[in-house]
Design brief:
CATH class of one domain: Mainly Alpha
Number of strands: 18
Strand content: 5-15%
Number of helices: 20
CATH topology of one domain: Isoleucyl-tRNA Synthetase, Domain 1
CATH architecture of one domain: Orthogonal Bundle
Cofactor: Zn(2+)
InterPro entries: Anticodon_Met, Met-tRNA_synth, Met-tRNA_synth_2, Methionyl/Leucyl_tRNA_Synth, MetRS_core, Rossmann-like_a/b/a_fold, tRNAsynth_Ia_anticodon-bd
Bound molecules: ligand ME8
Helix content: 40-55%
Family: Belongs to the class-I aminoacyl-tRNA synthetase family. MetG type 2A subfamily.
Radius of gyration: 26 Å
Main location: cytoplasm
Protein name: Methionine--tRNA ligase
Distance between the termini: 44 Å
Length: 539
């Protein structure tokens, strides 16, 4: 399970920890589903940065193909105009709003992409991996994919068939086009999966892919000649490349394939391709086969997230069930948003969004358990020690138990978030620790100890408050990848920056070192981390 590659920042040209999201179709605005994958990748990469590793996080947009072309037509603009507008007005601003710290943003209409894609496919053509043939079959424009009989549902009439994902009629496509010899790779793919059991995650998704490849892998139609919104085939300009073959290559073109060999050596192969389970086959079958054909190394892992559902159906742009993330962030705030989906839905399984569940978790976990702890501790340091953090002069077993709890939380969170991509489990481990600190305060009753003016009483009170503040110092570091603004506010209110430097410079390796927060730090009450929610806005 663990990735044993050394991604340390010290080695010259050491491989980076490279994570990608799917590049999203810009036929419409982003919804919760897209943000789900992108936030997950952001938390994962922020976690690895916090380990002190060299990290590269890539996202972007998929701009060719029929779906985009038809949307642009329907809106009376060119596909390029449509993409430019959506990317600048909807996609990039949303990622900024959600504090996504991506290192690059690739658009498939960029020259740095299209030129390399042409070289890549020309190479495969020259090697005899691509041939001309004919194909006919049911095609779903929503998926941009030919469908198998098992993936179709009956429609309203005897002849009509529906795509099982989009529940909309498929179209019959009959074309002469170019094919990639995908079928020739079945054996090698199966050998690769066997030798790399962690390549596809979760296990349920892996089994599905294995069954698919074991059955009857067909060659892949990789060009279209009935429309022109795509990358022209360099040897036959009447054809454009099938949008998926173009899109998958973003992972290498953005990383410097064919343009910057040094950077490419540092970045490729990717550590993790994050994808939704709907597009796993493309990433776990077609993409690896294309890379094998090109003689390039394969990504280390493809990890599929489940679907966010609305009313029992996959939330989707095409079916107009997409909810805009800003509808939720305007009510709950960005950090709570980043937290909620990763905490509430085990990564890899489907989950339904519910306003009630979000509200309940916000109130009990974020506002009560965490936010109140932070404000109580700051208030008591203010009240009893004039805001100057006292030293822990009388630590005993109870304090040791808190320090031990922290060490346990750090180990669990590092494994779960950093390696297993079990975000819910990792966040739960951090919140177990928060709960432990709350329990510690309840038991120690500092508000009662404060009434004891003796030297012993003062020493006890100092120790309790130091312990709680030090626990919060560590919590700020652990939650920084998930809720960066909140963690920063807490860091500032603890006065940690003066003694420890910027929150962004803290590492997973030192977070459990008990006693880092210097006594004498100036603790201030600061902003309320999770204010009481307003009434739910009318729908
Ligand atoms: O498939 N629940 O783009 P896309 C969870 N351009 N995740 C969801 C989701 C939902 N309801 N809906 C979307 C494409 N996603 C291609 C990808 S990559 C070379 C090309 C997320 O705009 C999930 O990650 O349809 C899914 O794989 C992706 O958005 C699909 O976005």
């Amino acid at each position: 399970m663990a990735d044993t590659t050394d991604h340390s920042t010290t080695g010259a040209n050491a491989p980076a920890y490279y994570v990608s999201t799917p590049i999203y179709y810009v036929n419409d605005r982003p919804h919760l589903g897209h943000a789900y994958t992108t936030v997950a990748g952001d938390v994962l990469t922020r976690w690895h940065r916090q380990r002190g590793e060299k990290v590269w996080y890539l996202t972007g947009t998929d701009e060719h193909g029929q779906k985009i072309m038809r949307t642009a037509d329907a809106n009376g603009v060119t596909p390029q105009e449509w993409c430019d507008k959506l990317v600048e007005e909807a996609w990039k601003p949303l990622w900024r709003h959600l504090e996504i710290a991506n290192d690059d943003f690739i658009r498939t209409t960029e020259e740095r992409h299209t030129a390399r894609v042409q070289e890549f496919v020309q190479d495969l053509y020259d090697k005899g991996e691509i041939y001309k043939g004919g194909y006919s079959g049911p095609y779903c424009v929503g998926c941009e994919e030919f469908k198998l009989p098992s993936e179709l549902l009956d429609g309203a009439t005897e002849d009509e068939k529906l795509c099982s994902v989009h529940k909309r009629p498929v179209e019959w496509l009959e074309e002469e086009n170019y094919f990639f010899r995908l079928s020739a790779y079945a054996e090698r793919l199966l050998e690769f999966y066997a030798a790399n059991p962690d390549f596809i995650q979760p296990a349920s998704a892996r089994n599905e892919v294995l069954r698919f490849v074991e059955q009857d892998l067909k060659d892949l139609s990789i060009s279209r000649s009935t429309f022109n919104w795509g990358v022209p085939l360099p040897w036959d300009e009447k054809h454009v490349l099938y949008v998926w073959v173009d899109a998958l290559q973003n992972y290498i073109t953005a990383a410097g394939y064919g343009s910057d060999p040094e950077r490419f050596a540092e970045l490729w192969p990717a550590s993790v391709h994050l994808v939704g389970k709907d597009i796993l086959r493309f990433h776990a079958v077609i993409w690896p086969a294309m890379l094998m054909a090109a003689g390039l190394p394969l990504p280390k892992r493809v990890v599929a997230n489940g679907w966010l559902m609305v009313g029992g159906e996959k939330m989707s742009k095409s079916n107009l069930t997409g909810i805009a993330p800003t509808d939720l962030t305007s009510h709950f705030g960005v950090d709570a948003y980043r937290y909620y989906f990763l905490r509430a839905i085990p990564f890899g399984t489907d989950g339904s969004f519910s306003w009630e569940d979000f509200t309940a978790r916000y109130t009990s976990e974020l506002a009560n358990d965490f936010g109140n702890l932070a404000s109580r501790v700051a208030a008591m340091v203010g009240k009893y020690f004039d805001g100057s953090l006292p030293a822990a002069v009388a630590s005993g077993d109870a304090e040791q138990a808190v320090a031990d709890g922290l060490a346990k939380a750090v180990a669990a969170a590092d494994l779960k978030i950093g390696e297993e991509l079990d975000f819910a489990g990792g966040i739960a481990a951090i919140f177990e620790f928060v709960k432990q600190v709350n329990g510690y305060l309840t038991e120690q009753e500092p508000w009662k100890v404060a009434k004891d003016d003796s030297e012993e009483g003062r020493a006890r009170l100092a120790t309790i408050l130091y312990t709680a503040a030090e626990a919060l110092r560590a919590t700020a570091v652990l939650l920084n990848p998930v809720m960066p603004s909140t963690a920063e506010k807490l860091w500032v209110s603890l006065g940690a920056e003066a003694g420890l430097g910027a929150l962004s410079a803290q590492t997973v390796a030192t977070v459990a070192d008990w006693g880092r927060l210097p006594a004498g730090s100036t603790v201030t009450k600061g902003e309320i981390l999770f204010p009481r929610l307003e009434e739910k806005p009318a729908a």
